Amino acid sequence: MRSTTTKTLMASAAALALTATAALAQDTIEIIYSDTVSPTDIRSETLQSAFGDCLGEGFDFQAFHGATLFEQGTELTAMQRGNLDMGNLAPFDFQNQVPSTSVLGTPFLFRDYDHMRAVYNSDVIDGMLAEIEEKAEVKVLAFPYIGARHIGYVGEERIMTPADLQGVQLRMPPGEGWQFVGEAMGATPVPVPFTEVYTALQTGAIDGQDNGFPATRSMKFDEVLTHIGTTSHLIASNLFTISLETWNEMTPEQQTTVQGCADQFEAELDAITIEQETTLAADIAANGVDVYMPDNAAFREHVLGIYQESEYSNDWPEGLVDAIGNM
């Protein structure tokens, strides 16, 4: 029979163990993430392996895909309200609060992937990133590449110039900035959530959409499309973003871990996307979709002319477009 002293020591040890466990649980950083892409999309799988798994012990990363947690375009507000920790946002998501960011969504701003990556690896937009932190209260960790956006549509003829897009009902993501992209390209933009595009194409509610080859295959748009004109009008990357409230709750060591994993996610998704763009373009063409190159010089001249005359250009930081173009 154990003595009272022994029982007391064992009870004290158990209490200390429970206290330590509770303290450990409190030190765990919970990160809730939301986006609109399918859970089976390569972007979702890469996010989990390259970022979520990379975080390791001390983090509880929970990712919600397919707009099941928050609708497309509402993620930034959710982060600001403390309902969401992270999202993979488009430049247009910041437009109302940080108007200068509209420049990053300008078609034909980047010549190609290498140009885009050179810009984001430089300090040319550091002022804009600081403005995002100050006004939107979120921190941009990385710019993962999701593919060049092209015009995919159902029709009889090839669309070669902006004039050929007149009257074409082109799906663009909801939001003023996205709609203006479609308008500047020469089409009639129609706001349709990403998860509803397949049905809208199938029923004829829209004539076309603009996405890269990886998203086109992931969402099976190529089952419906007849043509894809490789305009590459947007060399698209997301802003991989975390709320400042969540970021500031972390220790410097935890912040270093999160930033390192974000960098890894960017690098791995870039490599996968670049590989997919080549292989999927050929595969989609082999399956009967007419994949061709329009008169992109005509598109570029037309679109940039419209943007330069629009109200959006008034918000662009002075000299930034030229600085980006000269890189």
Task: Walk me through what this model shows.
This protein has helices at 4-27, 42-55, 75-80, 113-120, 126-136, 176-185, 197-203, 213-218, 244-248, 252-286, 296-309, 320-325, and strands at residues 29-34, 59-64, 86-89, 138-142, 145-153, 169-172, 188-191, 208-211, 227-237, 239-243, 290-292. The longest helix has 35 residues, at 252-286. The strands form 2 sheets. It has a 6-stranded mixed beta sheet, with helices on both faces. The relative contact order is 0.16. It is globular, with a radius of gyration of 23 Å. It is built from 12 helices and 11 strands. Helix 2 (42-55) packs antiparallel against helix 10. Strand 6 (169-172), helix 6 and strand 7 (188-191) form a beta-alpha-beta unit. The model is unreliable at 1-25 (pLDDT under 50). The protein has one domain: Bacterial extracellular solute-binding protein, family 7 (D-Maltodextrin-Binding Protein, domain 2, 3-Layer(aba) Sandwich), CATH 3.40.190. The chain has 327 residues and is of the alpha/beta class.
Question: What secondary-structure arrangement, pairings included, does this model have?
Answer:
Layout: H1 4-27, E1 29-34, H2 42-55, E2 59-64, H3 75-80, E3 86-89, H4 113-120, H5 126-136, E4 138-142, E5 145-153, E6 169-172, H6 176-185, E7 188-191, H7 197-203, E8 208-211, H8 213-218, E9 227-237, E10 239-243, H9 244-248, H10 252-286, E11 290-292, H11 296-309, H12 320-325
Parallel strand pairs: 1-2, 1-3, 6-7, 6-8, 9-11
Antiparallel strand pairs: 3-10, 4-10, 5-8, 5-9
